[in-house]
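Archive entry: two folds, one per protein. Generate the first.
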Amino acid sequence: MDKRPIGIFDSGLGGLSAVKAVLKYMPNENIVYFGDTQRVPYGSRSEQTIEAFAKEDISFLEKFDCKLIMAACGTVSSVAVNAAKQVEDRFIGVVKPSCKAAVQATKNGKIGVMATAASINSGAYTREIQNMDKDMVVEGVSCPVLVTLVENNWIDKDDYISREIIKRYSAPLLEKGVDTIILGCTHFPHLAPLIQSVVGDKITLIDSGYEAVMEAKRILEEKEMLNISGKGEARFFVSDKMQNFSGIAKTLLGMDISKKVEYKNITE
């Protein structure tokens, strides 16, 4: 048993989808979360900038002696390969677990990926899926506005504007006949009920945050590092807008974390 925390980071609120999964499926684990709200979004940045930001995020979490560090961010997982090498034996991203789940879920071999521009342009999801099965057809679409919807809490299933935006993004994937869609940015699972209502029940959605957490749980069990006693504690750090983060997090997590959120400018 290892009581050291799991470190989780994202450019903003999106990674809370992974936190929510940890709270549900590994309730004994301690969590340190960092949301880089000062520099959100990462998905529209250059690869060099994303790499630099990821290195700083990881270095901050390393100060807490984390037993595992999770990039709950599709952009970082797709692009920041060198940053991950800082903690290679303790690092987990969302790309590989999500792709594995999609390959297992698809019935017609056609998989769609909704992600940020950086993730789509990197080709990471396509490479990973076709490494698993070269016959798989992968269609990707960049969905930058969806990050903004989540960061501003426009996630209601009946929100007309959000629905229309999702219709536009998902249309090319549906036209290609995909039966499975990877929500390749951890912001997007917060919109899952709305996305599902747009694409229909015949489409399987893959929650990247959930799949990464399930992979983390498997790894910790194999290494006998899973914390199996006591209730885990969660700490949250943001680089900007503490109040805004806490307010939206209450909706996303279904709990008040306002007293657990701290400000930290990691670039100082």
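Generate the second and append.
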Amino acid sequence: MTAAEGLDRILVSAITREASDVHLSSGAPPLMRLVGALTGVPEFPEPVPAQWLESALLAIMSPAQRQTYEEIGEVDLAYTLGTGARFRVNIFRQLGGVAAALRLVPSAVSTLQSLGIPAIARDLALKPRGLVLCTGPTGSGKSTTLAAMVDVVNRECPLHIITIEDPIEYLHTSRRALIHQRELGRDTPSFASAMRHILRQDPDVILIGELRDPESISTALTAAETGHLVLSTLHTQGAAKSIDRIIDSFPAYQQNQVRAQLADTLQGVISQTLLPRAQVAGRVLATEVLVHTPAVANLIREGEVAQLYSAMQAGSSLGMHTLDQSLAGLVAGGLVSRQVAQGVAVDPQGLDLVRVQVQDLDAESWTHHADQQAYARRVY
């Protein structure tokens, strides 16, 4: 059995157990993530030899990816098994050895409803222009949410969608929309390079896998200003922190301009957090939503980002809510324990006093998603 075949066997074993991630390190046994926790792969209890692992990982790289790995010591790529299962892969060096994190990408794009995403996400996906952000820590399902939003546009609108991803995770088939998916390293050298030329490709909707640096942020804001809908992610927690992160990415002399651009273009922020379920195995999604209003735009423009939390608390009729309101709904429905909710709440002591005003997060609405628990185990 070759090293590549052995790697495939490890991945198949993880898929069978509905793991979300596989972690491989030279000199250590393979691990997989089940319902948020790392555990061993029963069929492979022995440490992985360094030479075997490097051989297996080199076998799934293209020549260009091998060159990148040799030059900088890490590389991102997508890997597809013979069964059709796809993984997002990051390969990196550590302590002189090699390691890899492989995340299973579901073969089908799920609906926003089945994911438990607030209904306002569909409205944001159908905006004619502007910037929509999906934020949260690593592994919180940001890419899954964006894929579901792209699918909404694909099914309902005769538009041109271009995605720029690193690597491509979900594969979309053009339906009413025309979709072109571009991968860093294979189709374009960088997010910034792709964005410099994208406006000549006649897009209506642009998905940027991640806003990583001032250049990609600046070009995304420019695209949103010129009449395009731009969808992207940030590794931040909370709507206000996401806005601060964007502004703080720029030098002081540019920050007023960026605030003005954000105030004019930002349509909404969906911030996600995955929490363990209270009584059964699985995880549940808690969210925070900020939606553009004249008052919100003015707070951003004037640099009063801290006051956005109050705007979200009072904006339930517009689809807004805070993380604490979401958590209160989950606790009231028995889906999340009070202790877990208090561990991530903005105001742990006042969590019991939060009045849930968002119908989408009412405990009863969750009961309509019979597949929520199984989906959370498989995807998140």
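Annotation attached to the second fold: The longest strand covers residues 266-276. Residues 79 and 87 are 5 Å apart (CA to CA).
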